[in-house]
Model the fold of this input.
Amino acid sequence: MLLVATGIVVGSCMKKESYPIIPAIEYAGFTTLVHPAGFDTLGILRITYTDGDGDLGISQYDTTAYNFFVAYYIMKEGVLVPGTVYNNITGKFDTIHFNNRFGPLTPDDYNGWIKGEIEDTINPLYDPRSTAAFDTIQFRVHMIDRAGHRSDTVITPLIVVRNP
Done:
């Protein structure tokens, strides 16, 4: 998975803005990439963010944590349910997540707000176990800053995926 974060940091010559220190996120779009054989292979999820104290992103040395959380839901008999995958080690089904991480968007000594957009590549987009020609899915996304503040949860619109 590729997670790209872009940010805008504004200097003192611009209009004075302020944002809460709890990150705020909004759904910005979803792009589906189609395999030459005609099925939907990858998805690019776009989320915009603001953060009042600019402490989004985790250190490259912290290899145990995630800060961008993406839960996967699939429509089953008209109801959205968490997607699952069989775990050969435990013998149980685990919930599918596309959690990820991104590095600091500002230097450690930065004191101010930031806003920008994050793109996260969902791979694979289709469910290789599905026998349906199409599946309907949804993602639920939130992020956490370095101080532990959790953003609200963004729920994407329903996404129809063409399976191989």
